[in-house]
Amino acid sequence: MLETNNIIAYQGLEGAYSHLSCRHVYPNMQAVACATFAEAMFMVERGDAKLAMIPLENSTAGRVEEMYRLMPKTHLHIIGEHYEAVNHCLLAIKGTCLEQLTTVTSHPQALAQCDQNIKQLNLTPVAGYDTAGIASEVSKSDDVSRGAIASSLAAELYNLDILQENFQDVTGNTTRFLILSKEVGLADYQENVSYITSLFFTVRNIPAALYKALGGFATNGINMVKLESYMGSGAPNGSAFHLDIEGHPDERMMQYALQELGFFTQELRILGAYPAHSFRASNRALPE
């Protein structure tokens, strides 16, 4: 029987990139696969898991829209973020030579990200539902002409050969994950640590509400790094927003900015304040 305090939930099958992220960040926790994002999140809400590893956006495919609709419906908190490099591998059953392949199957996004390499090998792409699931299917067949594109972890779990690593056409494809917990997600402030604060808010139904609400961040020198808008549930009189900003709520200038934001919003929730992942610093744009 698994101990609830040692479980981290993720969406997908074993070998998915979410599973790989769980291994990289929490190698000593038991990663549990869930069919949907909602199921993984509600496992944490029910106390059946301590954490959930949930993707929010991908540098190639864009945002995971479903997450923005789910977050306001839960009472979970963001306690951290993780950036996972998506390194696709060309997989096949044991003993297969590259020259034997004629088709390759994967999720449409993975196929698109590997399009040039697929064409170079003269393979026929076949779209499937899930990278890890397809790897599992290939492992159960004896068809040496069929390849799969999935993670190195999928190769390990399903006993497949890696014919080519880094099979994607362009390097740098990265997915940002949020680590969710039932516990309040406000890390203690430390001066020498860079923080990200994530907010959810809906603006009041007045002219230029968003402009006025965000003005406090500019006047107080607070950098906004992400702003996503979407329709709130059953609230036609105010748009909903997800906002990521650099800073911690305990900082004085941040408090001034949040106070001004609160004046022009009808709902405001701090989803979490957590240390910024090192990926942000290494990929910050250089000054001109």
Polypeptide structure, described:
Helix content is 28%, strand content 32%. The chain has helices spanning 17-25, 37-46, 65-70, 108-113, 115-120, 131-139, 152-157, 209-219, 252-263, 278-282; strands spanning 7-11, 30-34, 51-58, 62-63, 77-85, 89-92, 103-106, 124-127, 146-150, 161-164, 174-181, 195-203, 224-230, 240-246, 265-275. The chain has three domains: 4-85 and 174-181, 3-Layer(aba) Sandwich (D-Maltodextrin-Binding Protein, domain 2); 89-164, 3-Layer(aba) Sandwich (D-Maltodextrin-Binding Protein, domain 2); 195-282, Alpha-Beta Plaits, CATH 3.30.70.260. The model has no long low-confidence stretch (mean pLDDT 91). It contains ten helices and 15 strands. Strands 1, 2, 3, 4, 5 and 11 form a six-stranded mixed β-sheet that branches. The protein has a five-stranded mixed β-sheet with strand order 8-7-9-6-10. The chain is of the alpha/beta class and 288 residues long. The radius of gyration is 21 Å and the shape is elongated.
Number of helices: 10
How many separate domains make up the residues? 3
How much β-strand is present in the residues?
25-35%
The CATH class assignment of the largest domain is Alpha Beta
Helix share bin: 25-40%
The CATH superfamily of the largest domain is identified as Periplasmic binding protein-like II
Which helices and strands appear, and what pairs or packs with what?
Layout: E1 7-11, H1 17-25, E2 30-34, H2 37-46, E3 51-58, E4 62-63, H3 65-70, E5 77-85, E6 89-92, E7 103-106, H4 108-113, H5 115-120, E8 124-127, H6 131-139, E9 146-150, H7 152-157, E10 161-164, E11 174-181, E12 195-203, H8 209-219, E13 224-230, E14 240-246, H9 252-263, E15 265-275, H10 278-282
Parallel strand pairs: 1-2, 1-3, 7-8, 7-9
Antiparallel strand pairs: 3-4, 3-11, 5-11, 6-9, 6-10, 12-14, 12-15, 13-14
